[in-house]
């Protein structure tokens, strides 16, 4: 089946899928990657490429560095893919998890690369400076964990799957929540996420207020492709002013990723392509696995949906996916 006969969604991962060495294969193999990384260096005002390639990891993990680094890598992957396919693979939807929503807006023509990079640079600075707390991922349904979280001054940060809910709060509050939840669900152990803050909760309100003037001033066009909103779980209103309000609210409201996936599935997709980032302990980009693949495939289980998933996160997977879809 050619790409013209398919209904394709482009997706982009969020924070946590960065790694030292990210982009090294791309700049070696593709001139467009070299150009975009050089442009990114000039926009952010420091050697972003060197940080991505060499670290140190602790610096790359800082939110103010992670967000520009991951957005650049994701959009470099997208640019390479468009070259490899002669830009003939057109999505009907675009979506991203948290930070990835900005990549999706670039893919849809609502933001240009420079504007998106400046936005996420400021977004990361605000979240790192004004946020506080940590995050905890529970293998539990929202209904099972929400009331427990609120007992301990914690809040829902993301609904990734029906049985995967992320909570944010202060470290000591998360400790008490963990102990309380163990009494109710002894076989469901949460995973602590070491972040610079309890992202997408009320602990990010101050960050959002500092970010708003930059967001308000950013040039944004109506997207040419529907983009899904983490805040609402459905497609953005195409009006740029409305998109900006949803990006503002996204900072201190839960990421409704399962809502995004359900909306996407109802559009009778035939394929999903994920761009950028990578997970796993292997030392080189080819060793990495995609960030969102597992959630996408789990969300399809037990349903009538059969959607082909493709990774485009390094030179190898970009070439393979381009060959299949072009």
UniProtKB/TrEMBL annotation:
Active site: 98, 200
Keywords, comma-separated and alphabetical: Acyltransferase, Transferase
GO terms of molecular function: [acyl-carrier-protein] S-malonyltransferase activity
GO biological process, one term: fatty acid biosynthetic process
Gene Ontology cellular-component terms listed: cytosol
Gene3D superfamilies for this protein: Malonyl-CoA ACP transacylase, ACP-binding, Malonyl-Coenzyme A Acyl Carrier Protein, domain 2
This protein's record includes keyword Transmembrane: no
Annotated EC: 2.3.1.39
One Pfam family hit: Acyl_transf_1
Class of the enzyme per the UniProt entry, highest EC level: transferase
Catalytic activity entry: holo-[ACP] + malonyl-CoA = malonyl-[ACP] + CoA
Domain Malonyl-CoA:ACP transacylase (MAT): 11-299
Family note: Belongs to the fabD family.
Full protein name: Malonyl CoA-acyl carrier protein transacylase
């Amino acid at each position: 089946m050619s790409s013209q006969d398919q209904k394709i969604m482009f997706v982009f991962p969020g924070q946590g899928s960065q790694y030292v060495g990210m982009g090294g294969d791309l700049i070696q193999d593709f001139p467009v990657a070299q150009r975009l990384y050089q442009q990114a260096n000039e926009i952010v005002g420091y050697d972003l490429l060197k940080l991505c390639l060499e670290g140190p990891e602790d610096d790359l993990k800082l939110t103010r560095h992670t967000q520009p680094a991951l957005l650049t890598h994701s959009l470099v992957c997208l640019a390479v893919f468009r070259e490899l396919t002669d830009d003939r693979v057109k999505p009907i939807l675009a979506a991203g998890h948290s930070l990835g929503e900005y990549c999706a807006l670039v893919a849809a023509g609502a933001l240009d690369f420079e504007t998106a990079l400046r936005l996420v640079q400021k977004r990361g600075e605000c979240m790192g400076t004004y946020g506080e707390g940590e995050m905890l991922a529970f293998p539990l349904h929202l209904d099972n964990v929400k009331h427990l979280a609120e007992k301990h001054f914690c809040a829902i940060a993301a609904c990734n799957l029906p049985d995967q809910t992320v909570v944010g709060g202060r470290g000591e509050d998360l400790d008490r929540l963990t102990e309380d939840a163990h009494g109710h669900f002894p076989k469901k152990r949460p995973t602590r996420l070491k972040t610079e803050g309890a992202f997408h909760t009320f602990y990010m309100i101050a960050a959002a207020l500092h970010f708003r003037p930059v967001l308000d001033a950013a040039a944004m066009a109506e997207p040419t492709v529907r983009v899904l909103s983490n805040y609402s779980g459905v497609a953005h209103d195409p009006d740029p002013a409305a998109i900006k309000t949803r990006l503002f609210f996204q900072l201190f409201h839960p990421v409704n990723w399962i809502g995004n996936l359900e909306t996407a599935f109802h559009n009778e997709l035939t394929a999903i392509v994920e761009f950028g980032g990578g997970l796993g302990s292997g030392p080189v980009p080819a060793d990495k696995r995609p960030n969102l693949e597992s959630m996408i495939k789990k969300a399809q289980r037990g349903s009538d949906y059969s959607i082909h998933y493709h990774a485009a996160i390094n030179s190898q997977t970009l070439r393979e996916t381009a060959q299949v879809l072009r």
